Automatic annotation (TrEMBL):
The keyword Nuclease does not apply. Residues 1-30 have a biased composition (Pro residues). This is Tic20 family protein. Keywords: Membrane, Transmembrane, Transmembrane helix. The lineage of its organism: Bacteria, Bacillati, Actinomycetota, Actinomycetes, Micrococcales. It is a multi-pass membrane protein. The keyword GTP-binding does not apply. It comes from Microterricola gilva. It comes from the Bacteria.
């Protein structure tokens, strides 16, 4: 024990209190063995370039979205994919415009003829799109470029 009669040291206002110890560092995360080693935006190999270009055409069976997504993701990573995805996207957008025009025409004909000529040729446009998409897929998967016989080239 300390002696209560012992003099206390004088209070020094310039003296700082001792700093508390630093908190322990958080534990490091273990390295993920499943993480991709490729940097984002790495150039595609020739095989991957051909594969994604052919998928852009084959995706036309569903609509314009697969071609759009493939073009947006891979346009800077492979020249062949950039060219073929733009071609597929232009063709799918052309078909979309044709389907909208056919639907409007069908509604007008239905109203004018009281329902006698109210057929919808949208399914025929879809069938044409499926056929040309498969033809394009078969050519592009072999590394040859494909140009659709009719397409409005909106994306250059």
């Amino acid at each position: 024990m300390s002696d209560p009669s012992a003099p206390t040291p004088p209070y020094d206002p310039t003296q700082q209190p001792p700093t508390p110890p630093a908190p322990p560092a958080p534990p490091t995360q273990p390295e993920n063995p499943y993480a991709s080693t490729a940097a984002p935006g790495a150039p595609l190999s020739q095989e991957a370039d051909i594969q994604w270009a052919s998928f852009a055409h084959l995706g036309g069976i569903f609509s314009f979205l697969p071609s759009l997504i493939i073009w947006l993701i891979f346009k800077d990573r492979g020249r062949f994919t950039n060219t073929e995805a733009k071609e597929a996207l232009n063709f799918q957008l052309t078909l979309l415009i044709a389907e909208v025009a056919a639907a409007i025409l069908s509604v007008i004909l239905t109203v004018i003829t009281f329902g006698f000529f109210g057929f919808n040729i949208g399914w025929l446009i879809w069938v044409v799109g499926v056929i040309f998409s498969i033809i394009a897929f078969m050519q592009v998967k072999d590394g040859r470029g494909y140009r659709y016989p009719f397409a409005i080239r909106m994306i250059k």
